[in-house]
Design a protein that fits this description.
Length: 344
């Protein structure tokens, strides 16, 4: 009988791209005197807690003491967080739908902010464990429920222990408190999630470094939208190609490297190894020698009008698609012509 596989996922900076308490601070302190200084303090305390430089309980207490927020700010931050879901989580909703029974969210964040997000992914409410705010009669946050294990150090490990899960247990998170679940013997593997933030101390103790959720699903043969992790597909952009191209690739999960200038034949022959997608302008020459070293190249994009700098015959023989942007300068040419007409 196959062993059950449970997946425990952190929320802040893992399921979403940001830290919830930092975002609450930015919203609630927007019109507060000295707001930038207070927000910076909160963010610094957050990072120290996530890196394990100070205890989680100490980190949480310090941040709550600086926070001036109420129910209306919670509603605003929930609306914001819905737009901050991590890219690889967004494109793999099929995983959450098909594996709902095995997925748990265990977070040191706040359930009031988490449930509206996880519900949209089909994650069971009873599988979400997080802190709870305490409000006064006017809806102001005055603290958290300190009887909740997640309000104290080692709370995540305590929750997992109480669940009594039997089988393989994987933990995905960006913080040291996520690693503590494995450290205390309640998880099989700890995956350091680095798509949003990279914490050196957390990476150093991880069983696996996880650049995206796609990679985890691929390694564990779980349902995923794409058949192959995009983070394993390397893109090389040369000659200072517009940042928008870089952003588009990165947002879709590809591993991207950029260089400002062109490379000569020898340097490009070495650099092209392992590259799947190459972006160039007119100064980079793609010769037969370069293509001989292109062991994974699938496509060459010429971010310019011509393709005479590419050995199209050699590329075609290797099944490499080459394309250009034939109309990219049309508007500039028209503007030049009209400018010259006016001058004449």
């Amino acid at each position: 009988m196959k062993q059950k596989h449970y997946i425990i996922i952190d929320f802040d900076s893992t399921f979403i791209k940001v830290e919830t308490i930092d975002e609450i601070a930015k919203i609630s302190l927007a019109n507060h005197d000295g707001n930038l200084s207070i927000i910076q303090q909160i963010e610094e305390i957050t990072n120290n807690g996530m890196n394990g430089n100070i205890s989680f309980q100490n980190s949480l207490e310090q941040r709550l003491a600086l926070l001036k927020a109420n129910n209306s700010h919670i509603k605003q931050v929930v609306s914001l967080l819905k737009s901050k879901v991590t890219n690889s989580f967004l494109r793999n909703k099929i995983f959450f739908q098909k594996c709902a029974d095995a997925i748990y969210i265990i977070s040191s964040g706040f359930k009031e902010c988490i449930l509206p997000i996880t519900q949209e992914f089909g994650i069971k409410d009873e599988h979400v464990y997080a802190n709870n705010f305490i409000f006064d009669d006017n809806g102001n946050i005055i603290g958290i429920d300190k009887t909740n294990p997640l309000a104290s150090d080692g709370g995540k490990a305590t929750i997992v222990k109480s669940l009594g899960l039997s089988g393989e247990i994987s933990v995905i998170g960006d913080g040291y408190t996520d690693y503590e679940i494995k450290e205390q013997g309640y998880a099989t593997k700890f995956y350091a999630f680095t798509e949003n933030v990279k914490r050196e101390r957390v990476i150093n103790v991880a069983d696996v470094i996880l650049p995206s959720l796609d990679e985890f699903l691929y390694l564990n043969k779980l349902p995923m939208t794409n058949s192959y992790p995009r983070n394993r597909i390397k893109v090389l952009l040369l000659e200072n190609i517009h940042k928008q191209a870089y952003d588009l690739f990165v947002n879709q999960g590809y591993t991207v490297e950029t260089l400002k200038g062109a490379l000569n034949e020898d340097d490009l022959s070495e650099k092209i190894k392992g590259v799947s997608i190459l972006g160039i302008r007119s100064k980079t020459n793609i010769t037969a020698k370069v293509l001989e070293n292109a062991d994974r190249l699938m496509a060459i994009g010429a971010f310019c009008i011509g393709t005479n700098q590419i050995d199209l015959h050699a590329a075609a023989n290797r099944g490499i698609c080459a394309f250009n942007a034939p109309y990219s300068n049309t508007r500039s040419v028209v503007e030049l012509v009209i400018g010259n007409i006016i001058m004449l």
